[in-house]
Here is the input.
Amino acid sequence: MDREHLEMEINAMHQLLAGTDYKAIQLTESLVSTMSDATALNFITKYLSWLHDAITDYGETIRQRAEWRRKLKEYEAALAAMGDEDESE
Here is the structure.
């Protein structure tokens, strides 16, 4: 990949992540809401119920975001390597 293509891919990954940021916020808010009235006796039960729902509702988004971050790191490393090559020439 050339520099321009890498920069386009990096931008695309940032846009995909930004486009799903609200889901990460929703997930956090749902955890706080679920656990706000938890007691020592029902804490684990409430948490496990929330976790099951979170995986069901957000699991695919979480997997996608992890893949986008992996690709982003890969593209950024390749771009950095190009920069290193340009400096050594």
